[in-house]
Amino acid sequence: MNSLYIVMPAYNEEETIEGVVRKWYPLLEGKAENSRLIVADSGSKDRTHEILTNLMKELPQLEILDDTLKQHGPKLIAMYKYARDNNIDYVFQTDSDDQTNPGEFEAFWNLRDRYDAILGNRTVRGDGASRAFVEKVVCFLLRVVFGVRVPDANAPFRLMKVELVSKYIERFNEDYNLPNIMLTTFFAHYKENITFREVSFKPRQGGVNSINIPKIVKIGIKALGDFIKFRKEMV
């Protein structure tokens, strides 16, 4: 029986976090006993941590990582390493803002013996045209810098063998902000056994989006420099 960590970063998600946890938690049923739903919550200034702590009293397979860096990317890196260090078979990443659909997970899980990673492809974006445009720009840059073609580099709906993630996770500094994009790039560049599957993506269901267009531009400029650096290190 395979073990699974469902991992999600959280930041000021008091409006959605309980509902999201309750929606995703049942998917641990039928998995190995050491399977967990892991929420990385550090830096929240609302009741997110309090809600999670109360839920842990009811849900024994729920864990909180509260010693990570504040940003989204570092939280992902910390959770992926946590799965590796605990010898977990699979890690599934989604976000805590209720934009993804747990009902689409089973189709990914059923493909786990055929692929080392099944990555979401958000063909319809409920979070707005600007976010869809940013994703298209990212995919264009990956094609230019790395020569890889992917339909969606950053979807927060991905099932990956921990063994595969472990091949690349140490390439990131602990504060690197775009690990999912670069993991997708590494998988494509090194021709890992991966596939993309269409997933739905709703508008944000609550909370405050911490990333706005000026921040995206700033992140994008830094990301391009990081991409070039990673490309020089790749063989």
TrEMBL record:
<keyword id="KW-1133">Transmembrane helix</keyword>
<dbReference type="GO" id="GO:0099621">
    <property type="term" value="F:undecaprenyl-phosphate 4-deoxy-4-formamido-L-arabinose transferase activity"/>
</dbReference>
<dbReference type="GO" id="GO:0009103">
    <property type="term" value="P:lipopolysaccharide biosynthetic process"/>
</dbReference>
<dbReference type="InterPro" id="IPR029044">
    <property type="entry name" value="Nucleotide-diphossugar_trans"/>
</dbReference>
<protein>
    <submittedName>
        <fullName>Glycosyltransferase involved in cell wall bisynthesis</fullName>
    </submittedName>
</protein>
<keyword id="KW-0328">Glycosyltransferase</keyword>
<dbReference type="Pfam" id="PF00535">
    <property type="entry name" value="Glycos_transf_2"/>
</dbReference>
<keyword id="KW-0812">Transmembrane</keyword>
<dbReference type="InterPro" id="IPR050256">
    <property type="entry name" value="Glycosyltransferase_2"/>
</dbReference>
<keyword id="KW-1003">Cell membrane</keyword>
<dbReference type="GO" id="GO:0005886">
    <property type="term" value="C:plasma membrane"/>
</dbReference>
<feature type="domain" description="Glycosyltransferase 2-like">
    <location>
        <begin position="6"/>
        <end position="167"/>
    </location>
</feature>
<dbReference type="InterPro" id="IPR001173">
    <property type="entry name" value="Glyco_trans_2-like"/>
</dbReference>
<keyword id="KW-0472">Membrane</keyword>
<keyword id="KW-0448">Lipopolysaccharide biosynthesis</keyword>
<keyword id="KW-0808">Transferase</keyword>
